[in-house]
Amino acid sequence: MRVNGRRLPNALAAIGVPAAHVATAGCVEAGGDTHEPGVVCQAKCLSCHETERKSAANPPHESLPTTCQDCHSEGHWVPAELSFGHPWPLEGAHTQATCLGCHVGDPPVYVGTPTVCVGCHQADYDNSAFQGHDAFPTTCQDCHTNDKWVPATGGNHPENAFPIESGAHSKYRNDCASCHDSTLGSPVGGEDTDCVGCHDGNHTRAKMDEKHNGESHYPNGAAPPNFCLDCHPDGRD
Prior knowledge:
This protein is an all-alpha fold. It has helices spanning 8-14, 19-23, 39-42, 46-55, 99-102, 118-126, 195-198, 205-211.
């Protein structure tokens, strides 16, 4: 069966050729203005897209398989839209990351790419201006979110130990700096918590020292600003 060139777009659509390929059918016609139905459907991507594959720079395609449909859709060649389930969730700011931002090497390495945060963010961890950051654990998700690396406003507050979603401290749940002072240490484990800095008035050391007179574990003299947590771990009586 042969099809007149003027009727080619309708013929291609009828046999299931995607719209983008119908629009450029002139490059795949066999024999001038005729086209043998089914040729396009049976052809491999590289029969037309070898030039695009060789010239691709982000990422270079030389080391990639020729199953173009893994990343490219039939609607358009660029930008590539992953048609497979990426093995690591691309969420938040990671949706804007380039392939070569995570898959490094020459040629780029895809198998075995680290999925832990420091696999890509080691330099961010090492160069952080946050005091004491070099002593923090590398469980970056404790403080950072997928939306952006700085400021670090993520992580899950230990509600079972010290609730801020409810109770007297709930008004500070979106203001970490009200209770945490980076000059005091790491936020991990509440090391940088400044209890005394907030609890003034009836909670000044002068009044608390007198109230706790006789308590064997109450510190005499200088003490960390979060020593209250030793006896009041959840911020309550």
